[in-house]
Each structure stands twice: as C-alpha cells, then as structure tokens.
Write a structure and sequence with these properties.
It is a single chain. This protein has strands at about 5, 10-20, 30-45, 55, 55-60, 65-75, 80-85, 85-90, 95, 100, 105, 115, 120-125, 125-130, 135-140, 145, 150-155, 155-165, 165-170, 175, 180-185, 190, 195, 200, 205, 210-215. It has about 220 residues and is mainly beta.
C-alpha cells in the first residue's frame, strides 16, 4: 500500500527478516507514517528492487515523522544504483525527526556512478532534525558518490542531522564526504554534524564535508573526529 497512511503504535522487531524496498520509480511511496518515536528494528536488506535501489524505501515521495530504524544491515549488489538506510531515492519526500542506530550500509561492489549514503542514496527532498548511528563501508565502488548522510544531494534540504556512524571507503574513483559525496547547486546542507569513530578513504583520514560539487552549499559548522 505505497499510497496509504500509517501510524506506528509500538516498537516492531522484525526478527532478522529480509525487507524489500518500498516504492519504485513507477509506483513510489507517497503515503505518510506517524512514528510516535517508536523503533522498527532487526532486519536485512540485501536485494535491490527493479530500479536497482536498496533501502527501507526505494523511491520515496511521502512523509515520515518521528521514527527510528535500528539494527539494520543493507548490503548492495553489483546492480545497485542507489542505496541508503532510510531510502535509495528521496524524490521530494520529507523525513522529520527520524533516526537510526547500530545500522550499516555496505557495498563490496556497486554499479558505476552509484550513489551510496549512510542515510539516503540520492536526496531531492527534505531530511531534517535527526540523530543517526549509521555507518557506510564501500570498497571497489567505481565512480560512486559516497556520503555519511547522502551519496548525492541533487536538490532539496538536509538540515540539522547528526551522524555518529563511521565512513570507510577504499578503491575506485569515488567522491566521498562526511555529509555528501557530491552536491549540486540547488541542494542545501545546513547545521549537520559528523561524530563518527572512523572517516577514512583508502586508509587516510579525510575531513571534507562534501567530496565534489558546490561546497559553498554546505553552510553550517560541523565537526568530525
């Protein structure tokens, strides 16, 4: 029911089940979820949808409030085009006060020019006010865009998001940043903080907020360690 509205009434433990990304380009998720500050936990995403997307959502055009994802493992395949814990492609959707904990996005192989983020693959919507504990590990990813929040910020806003996960990237000709791998002029990244235990590219510590693109769009103070 990708066009329906939902209300979460209690914590949900999926018991290690496999989760299929909700929403495709042809049939995106356009509904709303009221999270009630509850948590959906303990599941695996290891199979892309028909668009090559991996995440809790595939193509997302809806609205989610006050929901946390925890203990989630996202593992990409060679067919993956976009990957992120919360969604592969935020296409004018809205996440408000959403979070994550002890979750990972891992790409041992990914399609050339893939967008891989700890939170969202490609962002063209809004992600605001969230505390994340999501890590991203990418190896041999070709020309992938890799970020601690989003792989590629094409449009929209990422505001006041904190990520306490790690970023570790090796191999390939990639764009990697603490917040986003690549950012376009129409995107805005504001008030974000990275507090991960590790931020390395090919074994070297990096501190760039964005790997490439319009760096002036990253307007807020931030920190890393």
């Amino acid at each position: 029911h990708p066009d329906a509205d939902f209300e979460i009434l209690w914590h949900i433990d999926l018991g290690g089940a496999k989760w299929s990304p909700v929403g495709t380009k042809a049939n995106p998720f356009t509904g709303e979820i009221e999270g009630g500050y509850f948590t959906i936990s303990n599941f695996v995403i290891d199979t892309p949808n028909a668009d090559g997307d991996m995440g809790f959502f595939g193509t997302f055009e809806g609205r989610v409030k006050e929901l946390t994802l925890a203990d989630v493992t996202v593992t990409t395949t060679a067919d993956t085009q976009r990957a992120g814990l919360w969604c592969a492609h935020n296409n004018d959707g809205q996440f408000l006060r959403c979070g994550s904990a002890t979750s990972t996005v891992t790409a041992a192989e990914a399609a050339d020019n893939a967008a891989i983020g700890a939170i969202v693959g490609v962002n063209e919507g809004e992600f605001r006010n969230g505390t994340m504990g999501s890590s991203v590990t990418v190896t041999a990813a070709g020309k992938a865009d890799v970020g601690g929040i989003a792989g590629y910020a094409k449009d929209g806003k990422i505001q006041f998001v904190k990520n306490e996960g790690s970023i570790e990237v090796t191999g390939g000709n990639k764009n990697v940043g603490l917040f986003v791998g690549s950012v376009e002029k129409k995107a805005e990244i504001k008030g974000c903080v990275y507090l991960g235990e590790k931020n390395t590219a090919d074994g070297e510590i990096f501190t760039a907020y964005t790997g490439t693109g319009d760096r002036e769009k990253v307007t807020a103070s931030a920190s890393s360690r």
